[in-house]
Design brief:
Elements: H1 5-13, E1 23-36, E2 46-55, E3 65-66, E4 68-71, H2 78-90, E5 96-103, E6 114-122, E7 133-149, E8 152-165, E9 168-181, E10 184-194, H3 200-214, H4 231-242, H5 248-255, E11 259-265, E12 275-279, H6 285-288
Parallel strand pairs: 1-6
Antiparallel strand pairs: 1-2, 1-4, 2-3, 2-7, 5-6, 7-8, 8-9, 9-10, 11-12
């Protein structure tokens, strides 16, 4: 972009000293899908969605878990700063990413006004990360208030998110308020209590919500799977994210164009051989959604 002579004259006199300047971070909600073995070897492993958290050794929120992040580098783009952050801090190199949301509540960081540009990152179980731990999810939602309005409705939900890693349990309670009026819908997410640092449970909730919604119209789930998989594994991945069981026939019809069959089969002991598939990068969106 060319700067005009008028712009150059303006910039010579310009000063931003009258404007307050917040600090800015990039933060990564990193998710993966793993197999958890059953006690009964004849049953297939269960798919389990996990989030990666680091343990804070310094204030604020010392001895608390948090998502991975860093203050921005003014000489780099936000995405490049994030890439360097996850590479240098936790040794993550291979992942899918997309910008999630910007969080800017005044009291979200006790040090100063800090804006967080958050990202959703998806990786697979083959990636070995450092300086942190993977936590399982347990999510419960309770609709405790519904009000019908003249031109819409109001809903209030309690959301309990429990994160587990062995004997370490992190409890989190969120309250979601939805007001729909005409063509306008407003959502307000509040933290009632959280064992995580800052407002990072909000970042995690938004990441889960984004992933869940994008299952309906994209192939995003394949970033959580190995290169080769069975249709049962694919279906279980969807069910784990959505938190509900899906009908086999409907699911296979909806995802038929998303996969390519391979002339290969599983051969695990105790299970019937199943055909392997791979992601079809040339899938036709209009044919599926």
């Amino acid at each position: 972009m060319q700067i005009s002579n008028d712009d150059k004259k303006f910039l010579e006199l310009y000063s931003d000293s009258k404007y307050q300047k917040p600090s800015v971070t990039v933060d990564a909600v990193i998710l993966r899908m793993i197999d958890k073995e059953n006690d009964n070897y004849r049953k297939l492993p269960e798919k389990k969605l996990q989030v990666f958290l680091t343990y804070r050794k310094y204030p604020p929120f010392v001895d608390h878990y948090a998502v991975v992040g860093t203050f921005i580098d003014l000489n780099n783009t936000l995405e490049h700063t994030l890439d360097l952050c996850v590479k240098n801090k936790i040794s993550l190199n291979n992942f899918y990413k997309e910008q999630l949301f910007t969080f800017g509540d005044k009291q979200r960081d006790p040090r100063t006004r800090v804006l967080s540009v958050s990202y959703l990152l998806l990786t697979n179980a083959e990636e070995s990360l450092s300086n942190g731990e993977w936590f399982d999810f347990e999510i419960k939602q309770t609709e405790n208030k519904t009000e019908v309005l003249n031109d819409g409705y109001a809903v209030e939900k309690d959301i309990i998110i429990t994160l587990r890693n062995g004997e370490t349990i992190l409890n989190n309670h969120l309250k979601l308020k939805i007001n729909s009026s005409g063509l306008k819908m407003e959502k307000v997410l509040e933290i009632v209590s959280s064992d995580l640092a800052f407002d990072h449970i909000k970042l995690i909730y938004f990441a889960l919500d984004r992933l869940k919604n994008k299952l309906e119209y994209t192939d995003i789930a394949f970033n959580l799977l190995p290169q080769k998989f069975t249709l049962t594994e694919l279906k279980n991945c969807y069910e784990e994210i959505l938190g509900t069981k899906l009908l086999d026939a409907n699911f296979r019809r909806k995802t038929s164009d998303l996969v390519c069959p391979l002339n290969e089969f599983t051969g695990e002991k105790g299970h019937r051989p199943s055909q392997l598939f791979t992601h079809n990068p040339n899938w036709d969106r209009d044919a599926n959604f």
